[in-house]
Design a protein that fits this description.
mainly alpha, 4-stranded mixed sheet, 12 helices, 6% strand, globular, transmembrane helix, Peptidase_M48
């Protein structure tokens, strides 16, 4: 999709590489299961159907899960005014605008294409951010739509759980259909399937999370360049990250499934081991990148 968001060839290249590698990994995985399990064809068909449904209805599924609803300009004039202004500045189609009635301060964009995208913000975010800070967050999410990484991460994230789904279904199929032949060979077969599945899941998870971390830095950069206010986006990051720490942990765990799509993760990921599998770069890394960009753009110090 053409827009005034600066093209990010590194992001595009990374998305292509990750999707190609995931396709190869899962192609080999399916081939291995075909050799090991007779019922895998049915599993592949079902899993493929689920993938198509998730891709086609990802916007509706995300809004339902976050208890969000679409709002018009009369209901949310401030939000619509900001989105209208930024879309005009970026020369891109305006997505649907939605609000999630939760105090968790966050935002996300979803949808299979720019023409079927939804930009959703939470009530907690609207309540906490000033105008220029909100512009920075909205521009960040619009960048995801413009660069098409929303649909890529939707597909990639689904493939990350495909291995577990396929093996679980295969396991129960064999368990119910093979009671008379459960022996050492069968046990060894399923042990091998589980090992292969775990390896595939680990590789895919690392690929997806590496792409996710880079795309967040890319969206920060594009948003700051579009608005010309890296400091406002940095301020929003600090404010949102600090306030998330005050949200009840039960609410954070509920929202954690959306970490890959959120502006900031629902739960912090600080330890080096956890950070290697995190969906977002560390807060300090994002702030440092915005500080460098602020100097490049010659933004006056606040």
């Amino acid at each position: 999709m053409r827009s005034r968001f600066a093209p990010d060839r590194q992001l595009t290249a990374r998305m292509v590489v990750v999707l190609v590698l995931l396709a190869l990994v899962y192609g080999a995985f399916v081939a291995a299961l075909v050799l090991l399990l007779k019922s895998v064809v049915l599993i592949v068909v079902i899993a493929g159907g689920v993938l198509v449904m998730q891709y086609w209805f990802s916007d509706r599924m995300a809004m339902f899960a976050m208890r969000a609803h679409e709002v018009d300009a009369e209901e949310e004039p401030r939000l619509h005014g900001a989105v209208d202004r930024l879309c005009a500045l970026a020369d891109m189609p305006k997505p649907k605008v939605a609000v999630s009635e939760t105090d968790l301060p966050n935002a996300f964009a979803t949808g299979r294409s720019a023409d079927h995208a939804v930009l959703c913000v939470t009530r907690g975010l609207l309540r906490r951010l000033e105008g220029d800070e909100l512009d920075g967050v909205l521009a960040h999410e619009l960048s995801h739509v413009a660069h098409r990484d929303v649909s890529v991460i939707t597909i990639a994230s689904f493939l990350g759980v495909l291995a577990g789904l396929m093996v679980r279904m295969a396991f129960y199929s064999e368990l119910l259909g093979g009671r008379g032949r459960r022996d050492q060979n069968t046990a060894a077969l399923f042990a091998l399937v589980m090992v292969v599945s775990a390896a595939v899941y680990l590789v895919s998870l690392m690929l997806i999370r590496a792409l996710s971390r880079y795309r967040e830095l890319a969206a920060d950069r594009s948003a700051a360049q579009l608005t010309g206010r890296p400091s406002a986006l940095a301020s929003a990051l600090v404010k949102v990250s600090g306030d998330i720490a005050r949200i009840p942990s039960q609410d954070l765990r509920t929202a954690q499934a959306f970490n890959a799509f959120f502006f900031t993760p629902a739960l912090s990921e600080d330890s080096p081991l956890v950070a290697a599998f995190s969906t977002h770069p560390s807060l300090q890394k994002r702030l440092d990148a915005l500080a460098r960009l602020s100097k490049e753009l010659g933004e006056p110090a606040d």
